[in-house]
Write a structure and sequence with these properties.
Layout lengths: L7 E11 L2 E7 L11 E4 L2 E9 L2 E6 L1 H6 L10 E6 L18 E11 L2 E7 L13 E4 L2 E8 L3 E6 L1 H6 L10 E6 L1 H14 L2
Antiparallel strand pairs: 1-2, 1-6, 2-5, 3-4, 3-6, 4-5, 7-8, 7-12, 8-11, 9-10, 9-12, 10-11
């Protein structure tokens, strides 16, 4: 479990296709503190550390993960958001994040507004994921508050600190991002579907 508060950046230094899986080698400042079998959020995707060598560690994304996330679009040199799992007893500064991506969204607009930015995203409504104004969402692993909720789109406000300390400064119109919708909203949607399909 994660909180959506990004700890640091990781840089992709090597990518290997192994059968239908993707092996990613990541250089990060926290590598010396990691251990094998540890879970980390990579752009919001929970992956397990399988190898460590100096400042570089290795994770594997299976076929289903690659199909559902933007990990398959990564290139050598790309910068990703990293977060280690929360410790019991820590403050929950963001919101409850599972590290299980629901679907990919596409950046549709970026507006600079008085030193901050409004990022707008579109997503396929067929998956029946929902957003609400002032509700939570995770974008590339970043816990954010929704400021404009529609059926298949939403916006978030990005302050300068978040812009600088996450890979939001690398997102442009047309960029694909990982979306994890709020778990409470997903439970509500499932209950409503069960009720309506009785």
């Amino acid at each position: 479990m994660f909180t959506g508060i990004i700890e640091c950046f990781g840089k992709i230094v090597r990518i290997e296709k192994k059968s239908e899986n993707l092996s990613l080698y990541i250089d990060s400042p926290i590598t010396p503190e990691l251990k094998i079998d540890q879970s980390l959020s990579h752009n919001g995707v929970c992956l397990t550390v399988v190898g460590i060598k100096k400042t570089i560690y290795n994770v594997i994304a299976i076929k289903e993960t690659c199909e559902k996330t933007n990990l398959r679009l990564l290139k050598i040199g790309d910068i990703i958001n990293l977060e280690r799992a929360i410790k019991v007893g820590d403050r929950l500064d963001g919101h409850i994040v599972q590290g299980h991506i629901d679907q990919i969204g596409v950046c549709s607009k970026i507006i600079e507004q008085g030193g901050s930015w409004i990022f707008s995203f579109k997503y396929d409504p067929k998956s029946q994921n929902i957003t609400i104004n002032k509700g939570s969402i995770t974008i590339n692993g970043v816990s954010l508050t929704i400021v404009n909720s529609n059926k298949s789109s939403f916006s978030v406000a990005i302050i300068p600190y978040t812009y600088k300390n996450t890979n939001f400064h690398l997102i442009s119109k047309g960029s694909h991002v990982n979306l994890e919708f709020d778990i409470l909203g997903k439970f509500f949607q499932k209950r409503m579907n069960l009720f309506l399909n009785k």
